[in-house]
Amino acid sequence: EFDGLETVTLTLTPKRDLEVDSMVLEIPLADIRHYSAGVHRGRLEGRRTFDGIAHIWLAGDKIGLVWSAESYRGWRIDSRQPRIVVEQEGAVTRLRLLLVNTAATVSAPMEIRFFRHPTPLKPMPEGYRDWRFSPGWSPHLNLWSQHNAVWNSALAKPTPRSWDVLRESVAFAREYGQRTYPFNIPLWMSHYHMRREEAPFIRPDLSREEREALADGQDRVLQERDDNRRVEEAIYFFEDWNIVPPQRSGRTDVGTIYYCSPSSSYADYWAHSLEQLLVQGGIDGIYMDLANVNRPCFNPEKNHAYTTLDGETEGTMELVAARNFYKRLYYVLLKHRGPEGAPHMLGHGSVVPSIYTSFWGLAFMGELFKPGDWFDMTKWYLQQDLFAPRMLASPEPDAPRSYDAFVYRALYPQAQFGIPTMILPQYSKGSADPPTQRRMNQDPALAREMLAFTFLHDQILWPSRVHVYTVYSFWEKTRMAEWADATFHPYWSNGLATAPEAVRASYWRREDGAHLVAVANWSSAPVTAEWALPATAVGVDEVLDVERGETLPAVAGRLAAEIPPHDLRVFRMGGTE
Q1: Interval 164-179: pLDDT, tens
Q2: How far is 263 from 310, CA to CA, in rounded Å?
Q3: Cis peptide preceding 135, ω within 30 of 0
Q4: Residues 6+ away with beta carbon under 8 Å from 440
Q5: What whole-number distance in Å separates Cα of residue 360 and Cα of residue 115?
Q6: Is 208 helix (H, G, I), strand (E, B) or coil?
């Protein structure tokens, strides 16, 4: 298709009953260094096996391949055995699909479908380096996601509690030059209203006392279930919209949301509702929480269920339906806001399921980690491999680590998907002790640690759960709007010689010859960092530290500067102000 997605359909027909020990389809790839597959990410070495994964991304520094499958229907498999093997043999990496992974009799055609998606998918959008976003309002932002408490009456429902409330929130954002992206959960649906429809819009720039006086209790969460407050469309269309068997999430009845099938009329409901939000509400786009497909469907009417050779019933991940769902939403957004309105769709989740995430304009990731101690994020990011079947509370102390940050790059592969990535710090989530949570949120060193990773990867940091004013100050000093059209040269391929081992340097280069160099110290000790100037920085004899306002001399094309632990410094040279 237009984004390079290739559908592969195989029909393997035996001329007679065959006793088959194994059958392997092999896809050879070159220059593969890292991977992301289900709960595994990191540096690719040797041989790895995988079970029933829906996606795997294998990539080098510049190109890669996403392999996806909605199900393993048609394969002759024992569910207890691996289905996919990835093995490196010299410069070649072999992706092996074990179409028959145990001795079996093949007496009928094997009909198999999977998808191949080469990366990069698309170029990075214009202006993304200056996107400033958070669901918690601040005048320092230019993109604002109105939380569901601001505009909705339920947690997951694409209609406002009041059109006036939604329009008032949009008008408020315009006063500060901000674009609006109401928070919603597109693949889930609430069954009960949690807030009163008459609850007013409360300006976020008011004092706490002013907000509480205006709210007068009307915007409080309604905790108890009341059948008079049902979301009627969710109840009426329950059998059509929900997958089989129904999947729910939530701690209370009133807060429960149900997973909806993108192949049902729920997709029509959402497309129509989004168009009304654009036309009547005046929003700029939509923020989509829990935006990944993560529930298999076993609907017999849609032929979603099948049985493996060992008798296990498996379902289907509706990837194609999700692709069509997001494609429709993107069409509606493009129709009403045009390409200049980017970003349109803000997706919270991994971009690796590219079959449907290729329509996203901004991705939010990072909640996999719940650090309980200072600088835990560095320990995770520098691991060579990561196994994360659930949220992680502490790094493995003895895990192999590398300053090439393989886990970080496998988790957040921005450029190869053409989707800007915003990283969500989670420091206050990792401790059950409120004083510790407060100290973490108020410690500028943790914000600097996060900036030392996100900035060197040309990514954006979500100013939340860290010291936000440290982030705001960094934005103000680096002025990335001035580098919107600059070419980014990352540390892993730019050839800049750095020392000591924990130091890495990335840079941006503009057409006027200006360079911006970011140098990070990813160690737990202060260092005297040394690095070479970019070869294109001709005639530079000094550089400007953009945060401190001081200059450093360049000697024989090299520079040196003190950098604190888990921190960075940013230098500008050449060009015109």
Answers
A1: 999 999 999 999 999 9
A2: 29
A3: no
A4: 374, 427, 428, 430, 431, 446, 465, 466
A5: 19
A6: helix
